[in-house]
Design brief:
The protein is α+β, with helices and mostly antiparallel strands and 94 residues long. The protein contains five helices and five strands, in the order αβαβαβαβαβ. The strands form two sheets. Strands 2-1-5 form a three-stranded antiparallel β-sheet. It has a two-stranded antiparallel ribbon with strand order 3-4. The relative contact order is 0.21.
């Protein structure tokens, strides 16, 4: 999974790298910088690896302790994920 985050980043568009919070880093193999798309992909890998989707409604994510600490909610819809991730992107890495 580390190779997903260790590649070089473009300097424009969606692939801009950002420093991320330690809470988000915990779910992304302890990386400290990543792009938004790579972070979303990594979070989905984390969700699937830990079976955090509601079995009756796959669009709902049931948060574990790491996600509760980072996002402050017990459950969220899959389309709410980006909203909860936004505060975890800190400074742009140039």
């Amino acid at each position: 999974m580390l190779s997903l985050f260790s590649r070089s980043f473009a300097t424009n568009g969606l692939q801009v790298a950002y420093k991320i919070t330690p809470e988000l880093s915990t779910m992304l193999s302890k990386v400290t910088t990543t792009s938004r798309p790579a972070a979303v992909k990594g979070i989905w890998m984390y969700i699937k690896a830990n079976s955090l989707q509601n079995p009756e409604n796959k669009r709902e994510i049931v948060c574990d302790e790491n996600m509760k600490e980072a996002f402050g909610v017990e459950r969220m819809g899959m389309f709410e994920l980006a909203k909860h991730m936004n505060p975890h992107f800190l400074d742009r890495v140039d």
